[in-house]
Structure formats: structure tokens, C-alpha cells
Amino acid sequence: MAKHKLPENVPAQLDDLDFSILSHLQQDGRVSFTVIAEKLNVSIGTVRTRFNRLIEDGTISIIGRVDPDKVGFRSYAHIAVYIRPATFKEQVAKQIARLPEVSFLAMTSGAYDLEVNVMCRDNDHLVQFVNQLSEIEGVYQTNTTIYFKVYKYAQPDLSLLKA
């Protein structure tokens, strides 16, 4: 197995076997412990124990990933949020994080304070969402960019952590 160089914020208890198990689960979240164990040449019990620890420590969660377009989300957007005063950033971020349309939220450096990615039913829904953002105390300005077509929607590639 290849060695992984762990960033400082990754718990030290993750090792090559953990990363290999995670990689298999990213490729197919329904793959059996038996198949993973055979491919990694370890016991099923080892895979089960590692899997349970990864669940318990919050490293992974098992979900059904939905293709947004196939279920009716037709309007995706990136919204840059400018906050004044700057001391409101955390408060505003917590309020935005609770909104169900939000699929990604991050504090940024540079021209704007928060980056928000949203999935809405249609453009009318998106307009309602942007208006809702504007009503949050501390939101000074927003700048919305609509994604016409999403070409890739993926999880991080764990092989990028290899030394």
C-alpha cells in the first residue's frame, strides 16, 4: 500500500488501511466488507472494526447521494456574500448553514466573506433564496453566479494525499 502524507489536521490514527477502506467506499458505498477484505488481504473483522471506528469518529457517514438534476433541482448557483460589520461573519454563517438549499458554505479570503453554493428547484426559487439571504442581519451585499451545467460533482480524491 502507498504511504499517505497526512495533513496536520487529520487524526494520527488514520493509516494506509483506513485510507484504502475509505477509497473502496468512495467508489461504491454499498461494497461489502467481504469484498474490501479480499481486495486488501485482511480479515472481514478488521474491515468491520475499522469501518465502525471511522463512522464513530465522524470521518465518514453513509448516505444515499442523489443526482440533483434527476430529482428536480434545475437551478444551481454560487453566491458571494459580503458581510458588514465583519464581526457578524460567524453569526451570519450559522444562519445560512441552516438553510436547506445550501450545499456548500465556506468563509473566504479576498473580495467577499462567504461562499455559498445552493441547489434550487428553479430560478424563481433561487430569487426567493437570494432575497431571504438579503434579509439576514449583517448581509451587506450578494453576488450570484448561476451554474448552467455541472460537469463534475465529486468527493475528494484520497490519492491526492499520497506522499
UniProtKB/TrEMBL annotation:
Identify the InterPro entries for this entry: AsnC-type_HTH_dom, Dimeric_a/b-barrel, Tscrpt_reg_AsnC-like, Tscrpt_reg_AsnC/Lrp_C, WH-like_DNA-bd_sf, WH_DNA-bd_sf
GO molecular function terms listed in the Swiss-Prot or TrEMBL record: sequence-specific DNA binding
Question: Gene3D superfamilies annotated for this entry?
Answer: 3.30.70.920, Winged helix-like DNA-binding domain superfamily/Winged helix DNA-binding domain (1.10.10.10)
Instruction: Please verify whether the record's keywords include Iron.
Output: no
A Pfam family cross-referenced in the UniProt record is HTH_24
The answer on whether this UniProt entry bears the keyword DNA-binding reads: yes
Which intervals hold domain HTH asnC-type? 14-74
GO cellular component terms listed in the entry, alphabetical order: cytosol
GO biological-process terms attached to the record:
response to amino acid
Lineage top rank: taxon:
Bacteria
Q: Which SUPFAM superfamilies match?
A: Dimeric alpha+beta barrel, Winged helix' DNA-binding domain
> What keywords appear on the UniProt entry?
DNA-binding, Transcription, Transcription regulation
- According to UniProt, the name of this protein is Lrp/AsnC family transcriptional regulator
